Each structure stands twice: as C-alpha cells, then as structure tokens.
Amino acid sequence: MFVVDARQGLYAYLIIGATTGGLVIVDISNPSAPQRVWEYDTYYPAQGIKIYDVYAYIVGSNIEVLVLEISHPSAPKLAGALESNTISWQVVGTGDVIFTASGGLKVFTRQ
Q: Class of 2-109 per CATH?
C-alpha cells in the first residue's frame, strides 16, 4: 500500500505498508527524474500519513502516532511517538489537533 502526500510540488512523502513499512521522501521537483532523498523504517506496517507544517504524522500498528520533523527533507528527525497496542488506520489533523482512527476516534493535541 502506498499513501502519498505531495508538498508544493517539491517532495512526495510515501508511506509503504507491508510486513514492515516506512516513510520514503522523494524529490519530485523534476517529475521526469524523481530522486529518493531519505527513507525511515518504521518496523511496522505504516497505514497513513498527515503532513502538517514541518511535521509528518505516521500511523500504523504498534504505534499510535510517529512524529518526524521534516523541515530538512534529506535529514528528518524523530520528534516523538505515542505507542499503543492498537492499529491506527488513518490520521488527519487541523491546527494543533490530530485525530486517529483505530477502532474508535482518538484525539491528540500538538505541543
């Protein structure tokens, strides 16, 4: 499964879900020659992504929300994680609030 979130036509943020998964950041400024610039292995099937400001929020199994700071796409940093024993299937957000779907709705506030 691929989930893509493209920003300003410069980078695509791809979630790869399988038995293991992760985030792949691709430079798409030249659409005829996309370049992989960074990859992060989540060690679990990633299911969804939401890019907000300079953060990527990734959801999947065994972790509620993985937060990566992506202001420098070639060198993102782990900003935090909320662990869980449930599988989250989707993440959406608005302002400082992030919502996940994992058999029910969960709400997190950005800090």
A: mainly beta
